[in-house]
């Protein structure tokens, strides 16, 4: 498997994790004020998931442009 293919596979998995984090944050927001104590944890997980996804997408673009 080439480096590009491996990165694409990783991005696919990261995208699924990011979407799940987004849904967790959405679900939490609909249940407020129940579980308000977990807002920061859930938001941080979503932030981290999307930050990593964006970094890998940028790396893929760089790799493909080379």
TrEMBL record:
Keywords in alphabetical order: Coiled coil, Nitrogen fixation
Pfam families found in the cross-reference section: Rop-like
InterPro entries named in the record: Helix_hairpin_bin_sf, Put_N_fixation
Gene3D superfamilies on file: Helix hairpin bin (1.10.287.660)
Residue ranges of coiled coil: 4-31
Family: Belongs to the UPF0437 family.
Name of the protein in question: CCE_0567 family metalloprotein
Source organism per UniProt: Paracraurococcus lichenis
